[in-house]
C-alpha cells in the first residue's frame, strides 16, 4: 500500500514535470518565432514551416553552390536561407565581405555551434578551424603559424618539398610510360602534397601503405562529418542512432591509427638517432607540451589526433585541386602553356625549377593568380558566425546564424573583372588588373578567405602550387586524353571543387 502510493506520487511528479517541460518548450518555440519575425533578416526565398528552404534546396537536384549562384542573382549580395532550424546568411558581394571580414573582422570571426558528431571529431572545438574566436583559437593558430607556417619555418622543410615534387615527376613519368602517356593528375598531385604534409606533421618517413591508409582514414572522417538531414532538423536525431554509432567507431579507428605515429614520433624524440628518417622538427613536436587557454595540461592523444588531422586535411585536397584545374587550363590554352614553358626555360635553363626561382617568373605568378581566381579550390570559406548579434548592410545578423561567405561569386563578378570567364593570366601582367589575395586593399579574389580567419596555410600553399605547376610544365608537355578531345570543365564538390570527370591527360617528356 505504502509502496503503491509512493509510486503514484512519483508518477504524478513525473507527469507534472513533463507538462512543465512541454509548456516551457512551447513557450520558447513561440518566443523564438516571434523574435525571429521581429528581426529584419536579409531577403531570401519563402520557406515552409519547420523545414524552411531545406527541401527546396534538395529538390532542385543542384549542388548547393549552384543553388546559391541562382539565388544571388535574385536576392543580391546578402540573403537568407532557412535550412530547418539553421539560419544561413549568405554573403557574396565584395563590399559586404570586406566590411564584415576586414573592417569589422573581430565581430565576424567566430565559428557557429557544431553538430554532436563534429563536436566529437573536433574534440569539443579544439582545433584552429573549429575554435570559436577567443583565446584558445589564438593560441592554437599562433602555434601553427609561428612554428610551422612562417617563412622561416617553411625553409626548414625545403628538402621535404623538393623530394616530394621530384617523386611526383618520377611517378608521372612512370605512369605515362606504363599507360601510353596518360596520367591521372589529381591523384598524383594529391599524393605528393599529402606526403609533404605528413612529413611536416609527424616528422617521420612513412611507407606507401601507411600513407594510403592514413589517407583512407582521414577521408572516411571527412565523409562521416559531412552534414546530415538531422543537423538541420534535430528533431530527427533519434532516427540516426545507427549513423551516430558508426561515427563513434570511425573516431575510434582514427584515434587508434593516428596515435601509432604519435607514439613513434615520441620514441624518436626520446631516443635521438633511433629512427634515421625522423626529421629534426615537426608540427607534432610543437603540440606535445603546448599550453593553451590557461590550461595546465598538455593536449591529450585525442586532441593531438584532431590537430594533426586538421593540418593534413587543410592543405591536401585544396592544393591538389588547384593543380588539376591548372593543368586543365594549360591544356585548353596551349599558347599559355608554351609561354609559361618559355619563361621557365629562359630564366632557369636546364636545371630543375627551385622555390627561389618563383620570384623571377612573373608569368608563372600570373598563371597561378589567374588559376586561383577562376578556380578557387573551395567556393565557400568555412562557416563564420558573429560573436554577438549585429547588423550588416542594414539587416540583422543573429548571434546563432551561420554566415557563409561565397567567395567564388567575387572572382567571377563581371562588375569586378573584365571577361571573368576567360582564363587570361595577361590580365595580371598587363597591369590592367591586380589582386591582393589578403583582401586588405579591397576584396577582388579571396581563395584563402580574408581577415582574422584567413587561411594560415596561404604562404605554404602558394609555394606548393607555384613549384609543382612549374616543375610539371618544365618536365612535360601536357595535352588532352584521348588526343584532341576537349576537356570537360564540369565541376563537382568533393571536399573541394574538382573536375567532375577527374582529369586524365597526356604527359609527354620534353626533350
Ligand atoms: C590552395 C590551398 C589552400 C586553399 C585554397 C585554402 C583555403 C582556405 C579557406 C578558404 C579557408 C577558410 C577561411 C575562413 O574561414 O574565412 C581556410 C582555412 C584554413 N586553412 Fe586553408 N587553404 C589551403 C591550404 C592550406 C594549408 C596548406 C593549410 C595548412 C597546412 C591550411 C590550413 C587551414 C586552416 C587551419 C584553416 C582554418 C583557419 C582558422 O579558422 O583560423 N590550408 N583555408
UniProtKB/TrEMBL annotation:
Heme binds at residue 455. InterPro entries: Cyt_P450 (IPR001128), Cyt_P450_CS (IPR017972), Cyt_P450_E_grp-I (IPR002401), Cyt_P450_sf (IPR036396). Its cofactor is heme. Pfam families: p450 (PF00067). It comes from the Eukaryota. Belongs to the cytochrome P450 family. PANTHER family: CYTOCHROME P450 77A4, CYTOCHROME P450 98A9. Keywords: Heme, Iron, Membrane, Metal-binding, Monooxygenase, Oxidoreductase, Transmembrane, Transmembrane helix. This is Cytochrome P450 77A3-like. It comes from Cucurbita maxima. One of its GO terms (molecular function) is oxidoreductase activity, acting on paired donors, with incorporation or reduction of molecular oxygen. The chain crosses the membrane at residues 12-30.
